[in-house]
Amino acid sequence: MNRPNQQLAWLLQEAIRQLRGGRLSARWITGLIAAVVLYLLLQPVLERKCGVDLPGLGDLGEVATPRSPANVPRSRSDPTASHQDLEQILHSSRLQTYESAAGLRYTRGSQHGHRLKHLLAHTEDEPKRPGQHGVFDSRNAVEVVALVDEAYLQALAGEDTEVEHEGDRTVYTVNLGRRIGYIGGESGNRRGRPEARHMRLVLEGRDFVTAFPCQP
Predict the structure, then answer these.
(1) Three-state secondary structure of the chain
(2) DSSP state, residue 68
(3) What pLDDT is recorded for position 193?
(4) What are phi and psi of 196, to 5 degrees?
(5) Which positions of the chain have pLDDT values less than 50?
(6) 41 and 97 in one domain?
(7) What is the pLDDT of residue 13?
(8) Structural domain of 33
(9) Which H/E stretch holds residue 127?
(10) What pLDDT shows up at residue 168?
């Protein structure tokens, strides 16, 4: 039975119950049925023309229960939630652990005090730094963390990735196939800041150590 027939059958059953119970007269029942039949005939036409989903007869008595924003679960990869978490860590004196959407753990460590801050040090060039310094094009913390996640997942899949092991650390050199930054520092600036399409990613298990744009 299609949707309009189901709704009409429901209405007839309800009308019969009301009539037997003496709540409505036969005239009211007849008029109500005529109005509903007209609605059922016009419903698909109105939905097509207006691009809206009109409620069925069985839905009219239902009231949706609103969910407050606090009760709506957030995805771990939700950009807004990630941004808030990152900002909280970057401006906190506690420097707690942050876990990315791909499962990388950013903990306390490095000369910057936290691995997240160390990562973001690679969003600024240091022209007077001896040697090379890989610099991300983006200065947005959320975007850079997402880019590291992308490289990590690509490395796990073994796509365009070179792998080395240095003690407890795993060093991935991942070709992301597009520009992600440039080579800065004294050496890079002498060469006109050549573009970088690879990322060097160093991990200890799932713990992040460092990541930066590079040229293999």
Answers:
(1) CCHHHHHHHHHHHHHHHHHHCCCCCHHHHHHHHHHHHHHHHHHHHHHHHHCCCCCCHHHCCCCCCCCCHHHCCCCCCCHHHHHHHHHHHHCCCCCCCEECCCCCEECECCCCCEHHHHHHHHHCCCCCCCCCEEEECCCCHHHHHHHHHHHHHHHHHCCCEEEEEECCEEEEEEECCCCCEEEEHHHHHHCCCCEECEEEEEEECCEEEEEEEECC
(2) -
(3) 97
(4) -125, 130
(5) 58-81
(6) no
(7) 64
(8) 3-59
(9) none
(10) 96
Strand order in the sheet with 133-136: 133-136, 181-184, 195-196
Based on the fold, state whether residues 143 and 180 are members of the same structural domain: yes
Q: What is the end-to-end Cα distance of the chain in Å, rounded?
A: 66
Residue-wise pLDDT tens digits, 1-44: 555 555 555 666 666 666 566 665 666 656 666 766 676 666 66
Q: How much is the pTM?
A: 0.60
- Res 3: pLDDT: 53
State how far the alpha carbon of 27 is from the alpha carbons of 23, 35, 41, in Å: 12, 12, 21
**Pair (120, 207) in one structural domain:** yes
Residues 53 and 91 both lie in one domain: no
Is 69 a domain residue?
A: no
Distance CA 103, CA 195 (A): 28
Output the pLDDT for position 66: 40
